[in-house]
Amino acid sequence: MKTSMKILGLSIGLAMAASLPASADNLKMMSGPQGGSWIPLGGQLKDIWEKAVPGLQVQVLPGAGIANVRGVDEGKADIGFGNSISTVDGFAGNAPFTKKVSNICNVATLYPQYYQLVVPASAGVNSVKDLKGKAISTQQRGNTGELITGQLLKVNGLSYSDVKMSFVSYSDSVNQMKDGHAVAFGLGTQVPAGAIMDLASAMPIKLLDQSSSFEGMKKLNPGYTLVTIKKGSYPGQDNDVKVIGYATHIFVSCKLPEDEVYKMTKSMIENASGLASIAKAIGGQKVADFAEDIGVPFHPGAAKYYKEKGVTVKSH
Predict the structure, then answer these.
(1) What is the DSSP string of the chain?
(2) CATH number for the domain harbouring residue 64
(3) What is the rounded average pLDDT of the residues 253-272?
């Protein structure tokens, strides 16, 4: 009987051991929705990190910017992709967050996103304030581009009631511009934007400079930055244009060990050329760009790496 019990106990122990992960350090990373760039980027980061950190295993899961912040903050995941302005809203407890997050530490800014406000070159519109009383098209309510459109109007002393708003898809916005039913089209995305290229093939266009609005936008959300759309990005664009920007970034649970996050940060940045095959803008980034202050404190492990490279950042 004793022998049988020993055998049974050994069998249970072996079964339990087999069910444990091969690595004691099995991290979950929330990426993005199917069809987006965050899932393939997550796959590449998984490969980079598992080679750089002995024993590390990373499981890539689907996700979305706001859901990722909640997931890591609540301990359901360890790593997440995010949009800087949404993550900052999480720290402030702004809607759609119902409470302030605290277990989010930044690792790196991966690439910028650009809020682009385009008008016909012949419209006589040279600033956001010139849009008073005119028709504007932007994304559906709740989208990042729509949020920024409303805030940009606000810091220029306007509101939706001062203009004629249309909340539609990119393609519908382009059609409204082509038909003369809209004088301005605002969207947040990478450069060049396919929708703007489509519009530029039908008429001469002009991008509105937003530099005078930056300080006001920064007060609304510290995650905003001022970025440059370089001349020649679009047909007929002869000058650099400053616009409101935000960033796709990588964050982790503040509870992860410092040495582990240090190795993850180092290996990611030193292998950035591979990531650029998915998001081209990453390839042109310098260490200081990865360490950009977007209003989210850095993990001590990431801060250690940046300090070694001569860049001082705010850590958690």
Answers:
(1) -HHHHHHHHHHHHHHHHHHS-SSSEEEEEE---TTSSHHHHHHHHHHHHHHHSTTEEEEEE---HHHHHHHHHTTS-SEEEEEHHHHHHHHHT-TT-SS---S-EEEEEEEEEEEEEEEETTS---SGGGGTTSEEEEPPTTSHHHHHHHHHHHHTT--GGGSEEEE--HHHHHHHHHHTS-SEEEEEE-SS-HHHHHHHTTS-EEEPP-GGGHHHHHHH-TT-EEEEE-TTSSTT--S-EEEEEEEEEEEE-TTS-HHHHHHHHHHHHHTHHHHTTTSGGGGG--HHHHT---SSPBPHHHHHHHHHTT----B-
(2) 3.40.190.10
(3) 96
